[in-house]
């Protein structure tokens, strides 16, 4: 099959096109023919070496939509021809204290799509059926793809930020995940302020119903009850904390972040402001978010690209030339 692999991680030319054998599903696994795969910033972190590779020549991609074309021994949750989604979380031990208490995203033996195993920048992919998702029929392939990571993990970040009903939410950075979270929060009655350096992203935010959009350094026009940072810049964290009202919560989303500057306790943490990180997601997060996305008619802004241009799509993401979410479409 035709695929893209991370050959030598680093800036510049991180992806190489390769011809690989078709993967074969093992016990409890299904194989899908890839119809669409979102381009996530985590793919970029892996390709550029910010996220240390766990295996050589990995096929990235973990926002995968496809149709089942082969079943491994014992697999029966899905049938041939079913359309399913594959996300970042690929497997957990099921035995540790985190798995046993509904926190499988913290499992020390968790495995991840496109990092521990080949992902969706390819014609076919294999996934344990227990970690795949049935997709709402109302969501087409290209629309559904970004929801499988940008949507799910962004939703977990929103939950971690403890936004009160009708509250004031700040969103720092406005890429694939952030613009989905904004739609969910606005649909639930929140006032959303977007803080990003990109004029195109600010325009998109306002078109989606944000109350304001401006540079992070300027701050929001009012104190925030909650905030989520999606930008991989640790320098944004003090700005977001400063913008919180007393008792507010900041959730830092993303798997990689540059160093956070020293915090001024009185200006940025005092008065019971909270700082939280976000790590991956649970399957329950995914199921809940996909139901909610269907009910609220969440629709990401997508930029479809042929699978044959995956290297350019990743380069455009690195250079800030993608508004919304880039999605690779199977050919």
From TrEMBL:
Keyword field contains NAD: yes
Name the UniProt record assigns to this protein: Probable alcohol dehydrogenase AdhA
Catalytic activities: a primary alcohol + NAD(+) = an aldehyde + NADH + H(+); a secondary alcohol + NAD(+) = a ketone + NADH + H(+)
Keyword Metal-binding included in the entry's annotation: yes
Cited Pfam families: ADH_N
Keywords associated with the record: Metal-binding, NAD, Oxidoreductase, Zinc
Segments for region (Disordered): 1-26
Organism: Pseudonocardia dioxanivorans (strain ATCC 55486 / DSM 44775 / JCM 13855 / CB1190)
Gene Ontology MF: a single term: zinc ion binding
Family: Belongs to the zinc-containing alcohol dehydrogenase family.
Organism superkingdom: Bacteria
Cofactor(s) of this protein: Zn(2+)
InterPro entries cross-referenced by the UniProt entry: ADH-like_N, ADH_Zn_CS, ADH_Zn_typ-2, ER, GroES-like_sf, NAD(P)-bd_dom_sf
A GO cellular component entry from the record: cytoplasm
Primary enzyme class: oxidoreductase
């Amino acid at each position: 099959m035709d695929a893209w692999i991370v050959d030598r991680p680093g800036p510049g030319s991180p992806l190489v096109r390769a011809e690989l054998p078709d993967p074969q599903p093992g016990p409890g696994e299904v194989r899908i023919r890839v119809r669409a795969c979102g381009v996530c910033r985590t793919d970029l972190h892996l390709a550029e070496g910010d996220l240390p590779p766990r295996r050589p020549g990995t096929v990235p991609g973990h926002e995968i939509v496809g149709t089942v074309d082969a079943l491994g021994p014992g697999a029966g949750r899905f049938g041939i021809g079913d359309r399913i989604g594959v996300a970042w979380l690929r497997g957990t031990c099921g035995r540790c204290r985190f798995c046993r208490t509904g926190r499988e995203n913290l499992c020390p033996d968790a495995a991840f799509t496109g990092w521990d195993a080949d992902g969706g920048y390819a014609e076919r992919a294999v996934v344990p059926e227990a970690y795949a998702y049935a997709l709402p029929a109302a969501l087409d392939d290209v629309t559904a793809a970004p929801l499988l990571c940008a949507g799910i993990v962004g939703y977990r970040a929103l939950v971690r930020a403890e936004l009160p009903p009708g509250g004031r939410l700040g969103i720092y950075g406005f890429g694939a995940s952030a613009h989905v979270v904004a739609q969910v929060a606005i649909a639930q009655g929140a006032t959303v302020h977007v803080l990003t350096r990109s004029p195109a992203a600010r325009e998109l935010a306002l078109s989606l119903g944000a109350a304001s959009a401006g540079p992070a350094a300027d701050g929001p026009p009012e104190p925030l009850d909650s905030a989520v940072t999606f930008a991989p810049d640790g320098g944004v964290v003090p700005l977001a904390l400063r913008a919180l009202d007393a008792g507010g919560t900041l959730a830092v989303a993303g798997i990689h972040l540059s160093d956070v500057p020293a915090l001024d306790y009185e200006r940025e943490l005092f008065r019971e402001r909270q700082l939280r990180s976000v790590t991956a997601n649970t399957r329950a997060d995914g199921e809940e978010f996909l139901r909610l996305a269907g009910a609220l008619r969440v629709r990401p802004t997508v930029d479809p690209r042929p699978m044959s241009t995956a290297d350019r799509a990743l380069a455009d993401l690195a250079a800030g030339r993608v508004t919304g979410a880039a999605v690779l479409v199977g050919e």
